[in-house]
Design the sequence.
């Protein structure tokens, strides 16, 4: 790919992104992938979690209604046990509970959600058993004060959530209230309310059948943990045709420990790539988000110098690129390390100085002195803004002189 001759050469180049680098003073491109006993803080796949960002929730708030119903899957292959079982605590609100059945089992020959008014249907036990594969534990999606929630599929293919009341919690005197509740639910229908399909009340079974909502709860989205990539390097950053950077290779990634607890991951073996590895992580085996920040600092130096993090053929004092670059920067000679393919314009010089300043913070020996990735992104956006203003001024003065 041909490099642009300016630091922010393309309009679409965005300094956002996330992630970082690690360094290791050994062979240049070797990846440290040996085993570690370190476990993710959760059994959930961090990459899948990444997709469930808080931003997604808010974007969804401003997104037009879906045109295809997410609850109708006629392809039998799409009905699978849920991959994540949520364990909502039962500490929530106290449900009104129902009692002995005045209604019994209503048997319908065509209990299709498309053929009936939502909420009007009394389901049979046979239908509920069929929909939930006999309340198979693999279809359990949640637990609350009311009871257990299962994912299910009705005969017509509609995917539903089946809420089964706890038998122990069932109060014989509250049958009327259960009825009154389901009748109220049957009367309301709104895009932002979980659709109520029907219920079952028979002997000691109380079941409510509602729309299955697939993307987890707001709480789960808010609890999203940051990811430590652990192998930030230029060869793990892919570029689209518009030069939008996409971070790839989450093979070493870990969910960050809960920052409130102050906990860190402790590795038995350091992973990452030579030239990018955080020296503090190498020394202490303690992994935090700031290890990625260190690697990101190496990446920034790589970006402005065009050099590899380790240049084995260079003379000793230039071999570790970040060290060499930081020394030049400290002596006021930043311009000498600018990638020779880049022009020495005023805008490029300014961006170079500012990027090296940010890199020096990212490369701080102690993690507490490094900025967060969020801060890095903010600084990069402001560098980009200044760069673009100065570039425009450069072009203007050039055209005045020509
Ligand atoms: N319609 C649904 N679609 C997908 N998942 C659901 C649905 N309803 C509930 N769940 C899952 O099951 C969990 C427990 O559900 P819910 O809170 O409704 O149970 P509950 O017994 O009424 O709880 P409580 O009365 O304690 O609030 C939820 O946190 C969610 O993860």
Sequence:
């Amino acid at each position: 790919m041909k490099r642009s001759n300016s630091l922010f050469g393309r309009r679409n180049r965005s300094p956002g992104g996330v992630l970082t680098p690690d360094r290791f003073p050994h062979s240049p491109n070797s990846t440290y992938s040996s085993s570690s006993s370190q476990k993710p803080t959760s059994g959930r796949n961090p990459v899948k979690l990444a997709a469930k960002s808080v931003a997604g929730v808010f974007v969804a708030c401003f997104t037009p209604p879906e045109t295809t119903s997410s609850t109708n899957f006629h392809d039998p292959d799409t009905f699978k046990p849920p991959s994540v079982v949520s364990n909502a605590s039962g500490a929530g609100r106290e449900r009104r509970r129902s009692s002995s059945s005045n209604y019994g089992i209503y048997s319908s020959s065509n209990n299709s959600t498309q053929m009936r008014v939502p909420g009007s249907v009394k389901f049979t036990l046979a239908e509920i058993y069929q929909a939930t594969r006999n309340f198979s534990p693999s279809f359990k999606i949640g637990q609350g004060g009311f009871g257990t929630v299962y994912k299910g599929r009705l005969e017509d293919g509609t995917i539903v959530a089946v809420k089964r009341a706890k038998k122990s919690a069932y109060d014989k005197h509250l049958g009327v209230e259960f009825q009154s509740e389901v009748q109220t639910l049957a009367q309301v229908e709104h895009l932002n309310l979980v659709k109520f399909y029907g219920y079952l009340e028979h002997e000691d079974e109380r079941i409510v059948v509602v729309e299955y909502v697939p993307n987890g709860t707001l709480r789960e989205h808010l609890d999203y943990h940051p990811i430590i990539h652990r192998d930030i390097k230029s060869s793990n950053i892919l570029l689209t045709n518009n030069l939008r950077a996409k971070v790839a290779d989450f093979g070493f990634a870990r969910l960050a420990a809960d920052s409130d607890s102050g906990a860190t991951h402790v590795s038995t073996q350091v992973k990452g790539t030579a030239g990018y590895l955080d020296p503090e992580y190498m020394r202490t085996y303690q992994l935090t988000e700031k290890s990625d920040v260190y690697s990101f600092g190496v990446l920034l130096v790589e970006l402005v110098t065009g050099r590899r993090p380790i240049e084995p053929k260079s003379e000793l004092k230039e071999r570790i690129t970040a060290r060499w670059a930081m020394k030049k920067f400290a002596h006021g000679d930043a311009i000498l390390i600018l990638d020779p393919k880049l022009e020495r314009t005023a805008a490029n010089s300014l961006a170079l100085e500012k990027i090296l300043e940010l890199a020096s913070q990212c490369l701080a020996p102690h993690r507490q002195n490094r900025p967060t990735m969020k801060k890095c992104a903010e600084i990069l956006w402001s560098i980009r803004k200044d760069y673009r203003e100065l570039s425009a001024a450069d072009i203007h003065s050039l055209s005045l002189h020509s």
In short: The pocket of adenosine-5'-triphosphate is lined by residues 86, 88, 90, 92-93, 95, 141-142, 144-147, 149, 161, 194, 210-213, 217 (CB under 6 Å).
